């Protein structure tokens, strides 16, 4: 979270970091500390609905020149069922179509979503090659430790991308034809064992969407 200040023609920046684990709910802390100097723009990368619902206390009102002051690009708990999708759609309709007087949002809200685009992908690729864009990696795991990577993801405290390395197949070699006694076959068997060993434990802890994904992953490993 940052603020840009302009004083005496000198442009200076001040980075303000707030530990959300110590200030829960976060919107109460923002209201008590930033009501007199509200933010011009909030970029929500998580998707915290209460943060927007109470934003009138710490966010400037939208104007004709800047209609969107609250940009949401994240979703903390994506819907995994039909009713979940319906509930999310109704919530978006409420905060974007209804006025605050009728129970809608305070205004200035925009849900930012981008679809697949070759032009955007090429632009991102060039930025990476030029060193202007760097992907932050939290941790790297071997395929045999895939369940540990899931555990890290489920903590929701990863500081970057979680990478699982898939075995590289040599030139002219096809993984599906590997022999059981070879190194490749042993690694496949080890992955099967690990997946099956942790399937029951994770099916109880994970959300419906994650349970569905784990089921598919184990099925694919058995093939």
UniProtKB/TrEMBL annotation:
Pfam families to which the protein is assigned, alphabetical: ADH_zinc_N_2
One cellular component term from this protein's GO annotations in UniProt: mitochondrion
Region listing for Disordered, in residue ranges: 172-207
Origin: domain of life: Eukaryota
Protein name per the record: Uncharacterized protein
The organism of origin for this protein: Emergomyces africanus
